[in-house]
């Protein structure tokens, strides 16, 4: 019998205007970083976790302004609590999937097998079972395009469409602070390009673009943050493995 974990989330204050929220009793391999950025006129939440516990209630004490919620992409570990919020944004390629709760695109359909009971070291509430898990539809979500800007008053985040991991994967870039929120496009761990909606050639193009990005702090969708030097290493590693010829004679 697993313990009930409450609150389900944990928060790390990185700076006055930056918080990282996680779900610590969920497997570290799929545990997403949910980034809360406090702006002057509005706050920005990047990604919303599994949706097995109310993120909106959990965050209530930290929120004192209108909140803009952006899903870096539609996968369940990032989009689960989107349905709880009023102002929700996602790239247009995955907009319909989030609005309708398309469990195939979200990767939460039971037959895909990505959310087993064994990935939960504790449960969020009495009677929780991963077998019944699904991400709720979010019909209020609005579609984003490459180049759109999420404005918080004192700072603004540009939407970069970076497909490959999934068709609607985005990063958010603040040129003034040179901070980059990378979702699942790049993090310091095994990058996934063999999913239903992954396209390696697009992933390679996205990675080439990241080599040009002026950033000094990457806040990723999983694992820890890193600097530009590490970003370049991770991007080059991916490009090298995926561009490597199949046969030594082709080198
Ligand atoms: Zn993903
Ligand atoms: Zn993820």
Tag the structure with descriptive keywords.
five-stranded mixed beta sheet; binds zinc ion; single chain; alpha/beta; 251 residues; Metallo-beta-lactamase, Chain A
Q: Describe it for me?
A:
The structure is a single chain. The chain is an alpha/beta fold and 251 residues long. It has one domain: Ribonuclease Z/Hydroxyacylglutathione hydrolase-like (Metallo-beta-lactamase, Chain A, 4-Layer Sandwich), CATH 3.60.15.10. Helix content is 18%, strand content 22%. The protein has six helices and twelve strands. It has a seven-stranded mixed β-sheet with strand order 1-2-3-4-5-6-7, with no helix packed on it. Helix 1 (55-59) links the parallel strand 4 and strand 5. The radius of gyration is 18 Å and the shape is globular. Bound molecules: zinc ion (2 copies). Residues 32, 75, 77-78, 184, 221-222 line the site of one zinc ion.
Write the layout of secondary structure elements.
Blueprint: E1 10-15, E2 18-22, E3 34-38, E4 43-46, H1 55-59, E5 67-70, H2 76-79, E6 88-91, H3 95-100, H4 103-106, E7 142-144, E8 149-151, E9 156-161, E10 170-174, E11 179-183, H5 200-210, E12 217-220, H6 228-243
Parallel strand pairs: 4-5, 5-6, 6-7, 11-12
Antiparallel strand pairs: 1-2, 2-3, 3-4, 8-9, 9-10, 10-11
Helix pairs in contact: 5-6
This protein binds zinc ion (ZN) (2 copies).
Summarize the structure.
By secondary structure, this protein is an alpha/beta fold. The chain is 18% helix and 22% strand. The protein is built from six helices and twelve strands.
